Amino acid sequence: MTLTSILCPLDFSAATPGLVAYAAALAAATGAELRLLHVREPQDADAPAGADRLAGLRAAAERAGAVHVSTGTVQGEAAPEIVAEAGRRRADLIVIGAHGQTGLTRFLMGNTAEVVLRTAPCPTLLVRAAQAAPPALSFAQ
What we know:
Layout: E1 5-10, H1 16-30, E2 33-40, H2 47-63, E3 69-75, H3 78-89, E4 93-98, H4 103-109, H5 112-119, E5 124-128
Parallel strand pairs: 1-2, 1-4, 2-3, 4-5
Helix pairs in contact: 1-2, 3-5
């Protein structure tokens, strides 16, 4: 499997910096482009703050060794927008965080990661918040 494009959707939760480090390590090890994506829900009003956060996360990904990093923001429902972006970008892999919702909370609120896993046009790597430390990776090029 050759990785040329990795999509990493971000929700700016406490797990986001670790998730970016994880995705950046994968991008650095494979030479893939890393796309950091934030989906603004319709009720989100603070677009400038989101752009500032993305810029900071892009810098962190570059410090972690990712060479080709881009960012983007779209507005809408998270899961369908992530899947659509993966298709538009021809992503080879989606690296997405899991918040570990189970039971009634998952039933009532839905689970973005689960919907992305089921509907994405490419493989999806689900990273738990507790495991979001960058892996030591080595790939033969």
